[in-house]
Amino acid sequence: MEKLYNLVTREERCVGCSNCVVVCPVNAYNDPAVASGKGPEQLDKVIMCVENGVVKILNMELCNGCGTCVMECPFDAIGLEV
Amino acid sequence: MIEEKNNVLCPFCGCLCDDGVVMVEDNKIIGTRNLCRIGHKKFETSQHGRAESPRIRKNGKLVPVTLEEAFDKAAEILANAERPLFYGWSATSVEATQVGCMLTEACRGSIDCTAAICHAPSLEAVQDQGAPLSTLGEVMNRADLIIYWGCNPMHAHPRHMSRYSVYPRGFFRRRGRKSRTIMVIDPRQTNTAKLADLHIQVSPASDHMLVHTFREIINSYDVTHETVSGIPADAIRETVEAIGQHQWAILFFGMGLTQQMGKDMNIDVAITLMHELNKYIGTKTTLMPMRGHFNVAGANITICAETGHPFAVDFSRGYPRYLPGETSAMDLLYRGEIDAMLNIGANPGTSFSNRALSHMAKIPLINIEPHNQQLLQLSDVVFSPAMVGIECEGTAYRMDNVPIKLRKVVEPSENCLPDVVILSEILKRVNELKGKGSWSECWGVQEGNGEVV
Fold first, then answer.
1. So what's the ipTM on this one?
2. Is the torsion defined by CA of B388, B339, B349, B315 positive or negative?
3. Contact B155, B184 (CB under 8 A)
4. Cys staple from B126: which of A70, B75, B131, B261, with CB 3.0 to 4.6 Å?
5. Residues of chain A found within 8 Å of residue B142, distances taken between Cβ atoms
6. Structural domain of B373
C-alpha cells in the first residue's frame, strides 16, 4: 500500500548534526551503532544518514511517519509531507 | 576505484568524532559520511588551494623557495630574536607542541596557545578551585540533566548532542533523549535553546549573579530581590528544585561564561556550585568546557606537561614563568615586546585585535599554515604543512581530555611535511646557530623522523 506521507529534506538548511539519524527509533532499533550515537554501519537498515555534511534519505520504505526526527531538528531541515 | 576509509577522526572541533567515513579516489577526497557540515568541509577543502612549496617574502612578495632555504631563514629569524613568540598549537598534534616547547626554551621565547583568547579563564578557575570532571562516555551513559550555559553546540559543535550528550542511548539512560532533560542558559533564542526543555533567558553579562543566586538557594539563604539577572526569583527556586530531582547532571559551558564580565570568576563560582550540588543536594554534578579547536585541550595539556603551566609561558629568564595578563600573547604584542613570531595551527588574522595585528605587521613572522589565510599578508616565511588527521598522523585530546590517535587519510604532496618535522628541522638549525652543539644530544630527539624519545 502506498504511504500517505513522505519524508522530505531541505539540504540547504541542514548542518549535518545527526540529531534526526540518532533520535529515529527505527534507525536505533535496526542498527546498534546508531543507538549509541554513532553513524550507521548498516546502510540498508536505516532510514536516513548524513552524507557529505547533509542528511540524505536512504530507505523511505522503513519510515513509519512518527515525526520524531522532525521534532528534534531546530533548522527545519527535515519534514513530513502528506 | 573509490576506497572507503572507516572510523576516521574528524580534526575540526573538540568533539573529535571518531566514526567518520571518507571516500578517497586516486588520493583525492571525494566525499564523506557521518560527519557534520563543518567536518565535511574541512575534508573536502583540505586539498584545494594548497601551496606546493614553502615561501619567503622577497621585495614585498612571497616567493616559492626550497625547504632547506625556508628552514634556514626561519631558524635565522628565531635565533636572532631576543623575545620570540610561539603562538597557536590548537590545530596541530601534541607531538608538534612538544617540539614547540623545546624550540621556545632554546630561543628563550614565550609560548601561548589559542586558549588565551577562549578558555583560559576556565583553566585559571580550575587552578583556583579544582574541577569535578568526567568523560563524554560517562555523560552518554549516566547524565539525565544536561545544562548548556553560554554555548551553542548546534552551531559550534554540531554533533555534540547526537554523538555524546543528549540523543545516544546509554547504559543507565536506555531511552536516549526521553531519559534526559536539557536546560539551556543563554540570553539568545539559539538553535540549541529551541531543543531545550527549559530555556533560562538570562540578561546579558549577568551570569555571575545567577550562579550566586543558585548557590544562595542551595545554602538556604533568602533571595531578597524579586528578579535576578532578568529571571523571577521563584523561577530560580523552581529551577534548583528541578536540578535536585535529577541523579547525574553535567554543565557544558562556553564563551558566554568565560569571556563575559567576570571571566574566570564566573567559572570559579560555577565550580563551587557543582561542589555544593554534590555535597548538599545529592545530584552528582560535573562540568566540562566546550573546547573549540580539535586539539586545544591537547595544547594546554602538553604545554603543562613540558613546562608546568598550561598557557602563556615565558622562557625569557631561562626558566618557565606563568603570568597570565603579562606573558600571554595579546599582552606581549600590545606592549610591543615581541621581535619575532611563529604561528602554527591558528589564525590570529581573524581573532586578534587590530592593535596586536599592527605590531605583528612590524616584526618578522613565520607562518605554518596549509591554506591561504588572512595572516599570509603579514608573513615573511610560510610553510605549507601536511594537515594532521588528514595527511599525517598525530595525537589529539578531545574536549574531555581523552587522547585519541588521528589517522592519515590521503598522502600529502612532496613538500608538505608534518608540523613536527618542520619544527624539529627549525629547532636543529636554531641550536646550531646558538652554538648548543648536537641537536639530538641536547634534546634527546632522534634525528630523521623528528620523533621525540
1. 0.96
2. positive
3. no
4. B131
5. none
6. 54-118+294-443
CATH of the domain at B422: 3.40.50.740
How many angstroms separate the CA atoms of B337 and B174, rounded? 57
**Nearest-CA distance from B376 to chain A in Å?**
29
- DSSP letters of A16-81? ---HHHHH-HHHHHH-HHHHTTSPPS-GGG-SEEEETTEEEE--GGG-----HHHHT-TT--EEEE
Is the same domain home to B313 and B326? yes
pLDDT in tens, A20-73: 999 999 999 999 999 999 999 999 999 999 999 999 999 999 999 999 999 999
- For cell 538548511, the residue is A13
If one counts the domains in chain B, the total is 2
Q: Is B42 on the interface with A (CB under 8 A)?
A: no
- Predicted TM-score (pTM) of this structure: 0.93
Distance from CA of A62 to the nearest CA of B (A): 20
Pick from B36, B40, B168: CB nearest A37: B168
B20 and A CB contact within 8 Å: yes
Query: Is B25 inside a domain boundary?
Result: no
Of A14, A50, A75, the CB nearest to B191: A75
